[in-house]
Amino acid sequence: MARTVLVVGGSGAFGGRLVDGLIATSDFDVIVAGRDLARARTKAAACGARATALRVDSATVTAQMLAETGAFVVVDAAGPFQGADYRLARAAIAAGMHYVDLADARDFVAGFGALDAAARAAGVVALTGASSTPALSHAVLDRLTQGWRRVDAVEIAISPGNRNSPRGLSVIRAILSYAGKPVRVFAGGTWTAWPGWGRPVRREMPGLGRRWLSLCETPDLDLVPARFSPRDAALFRAGLELSVMHVGLYLAGLLVRSGLLRSLIPFASLFRWMAERLKGFGADRGGMLVEVAGIDAAGNPVRSAWSLVAEGGDGPMVPTLPALAAIRALGDGSLSQPGARACVGVLDLDQISREFAPYRIATHLSTSARQ
After folding, report:
1. From CA 260, how far away is CA 238, in angstroms rounded?
2. Whose CA is closest to 14, among 345, 322, 338, 369?
3. d(Cα 278, Cα 19) in Å, to the nearest integer?
4. Which residues make Cβ contacts (< 8 Å) with residue 31, sequence separation at least 6?
5. Which of 39, 176, 199, 259 has the most beta carbons within 10 angstroms of its beta carbon?
6. For 265-294, how does the pLDDT look when each residue is reduced to its tens digit (9 = 90+)?
7. Which of 226, 192, 208, 194 is nearest to 158 (CA)?
C-alpha cells in the first residue's frame, strides 16, 4: 500500500516542483494542498492518478483535518515563512504525523525548537529548513570540514538564473522583508549589523561567470556560527542575475535604511510586475557556492570549496531536493529520531546529492593550500 505525502503549497513555485519530484522519483501518493482549491486540482490533475487535491489553509488548519487525510508526513512549502507561526507544524505533530518544511526564514527556524517536547511526546520527526539553506549548505559544510581542527571563515552564495527564477509573491515578500533593514551577522570576529541586501559585491561564481551578490538573511547566519564556531566570519549572500534588478533592489533598500520607508513589502506586487517584464533576459543557469577556510586534520591551512551549477531551468528544483531526501528517509525509516529541529546534521551530502540525478545539476569540490 502506497504511503501518502501531504504538500501544503503544492501548486506554488517550490511546492509544485516538490510534488513533481515525488511523483517522478518515488512511490508515494501525493495530496496537493493549498488555500486555492482550483489551483490544487489543476496541479493534481497534471500529475496523474497518484495525486489528489485538498483545500488546506495554514491559518485555520486543525490536527483532525490533517489526520483525516491519512498522510504520514505534512510538508509546508507555502511560505513566506518570515513572520509566520507554527500552527501547521503544531497541528501535524498533534495528529501524530511527521512534518517537514522549506523554511528559509531566520526567526522561524531559530524558534522551531519550541516544538521539540511535543514532537518527542508524539513520537514524530519535525524538521524545519529542509532546503538549500540550511539543509544543503550544512551537509556541504559537514563534508568539507570533516576532521578539521579549526574553521576560520565560511561564505555561502546562491545566484539563480533570471529566466527560471521563481517570481511568486511569497518569494518576493521574503526578500523584501529584510531589504534595507539591519541584519545581525558574524563578521570580523564579532557580531555586528549589516544592511539586508547591502554590501553588494560582484564576484566569479563557478560555471556562471561574474554575478552580483548581497547580504541575505537566512538561518545560516545563526546556525553556521553555532555549529562550526568560525573565528572570523560566517556570511551568506544571494544575487539576482540581472544588474538592473540586483542593483535596483539595493537602491530601493536605501529608502528603508534612511527611514523614508518602513519596509519594501507593500511594493511586492510592483517588484513582481517588473520582474515579469524582464523574464526573457539573462540565463536559465543558476548555482550555489560554499567556501570554507581553516585548519585541516593534518594542521595545514586550507581553503575548500563546493559549487553547484544547474542548467536548463533546473535550478528551482534544488531548494526542494533536501525536503525530498528527508521525506524518502522518513518513508524508509532511516530518519526516525523523534523531535523538532533544524534540518542540519540530519541528512548527509550523499543523501541529498542522489536527488540531483534526474536533473541537469553538476557539482564540484576542491581543496587548496591557504597562505
Report:
1. 25
2. 322
3. 27
4. 4, 5, 6, 7, 10, 51, 52, 53, 54, 69, 71
5. 176
6. 999 999 999 999 999 999 999 999 999 999
7. 208
Backbone angles phi, psi at 104, to 5 degrees: -120, 10
Q: Please, how many CA atoms are within 13 Å of residue 195, restricted to the half-sphere of its CB?
A: 18
Rounded distance between C-alpha atoms, residue 154 and residue 27, angstroms: 38
pLDDT digits (tens, 9 = 90+) for 210-254: 999 999 999 999 999 999 999 999 999 999 999 999 999 999 999
pLDDT at position 343 over 90: yes
Nearest-5° Cα angle at 309, 304 to 311: 170
Per-residue cell: 23: 511523483
Question: What residues pair up with 51 in beta bridges, in sequence order?
Answer: 30
Asked if the peptide bond before residue 134 counts as cis, ω within 30 degrees of 0, the response is yes
Residue closest to 119 by CA, chosen among 160, 79, 91, 153: 91
Residue type, 58: S
Q: Which helix (H) or strand (E) holds 204?
A: strand 201-205
Strands (E), 40-128: 51-55, 73-76, 98-101, 125-128
Neighbour-count burial of 72, counting CB atoms closer than 10 A to its CB (0-12 exposed, 13-18 middle, 19+ buried): middle
The residue type found at 13 is A
- Strand-pairing partners, residue 185, are 192
Q: Is the pTM of this model over 0.90?
A: yes
Residues 6 or more apart whose Cβ sits within 8 Å of residue 215: 183, 185, 194, 195, 196, 197, 198, 199, 235, 236, 237
SS3 content of the chain, % helix, strand, coil (to 5): 35, 25, 35
CA distance 321 to 160: 16
CA atoms within 13 A on the CB side of 37: 3
What's the pLDDT tens digit per position in 190-213? 999 999 999 999 999 999 999 999
Amino acid identity at 157: A
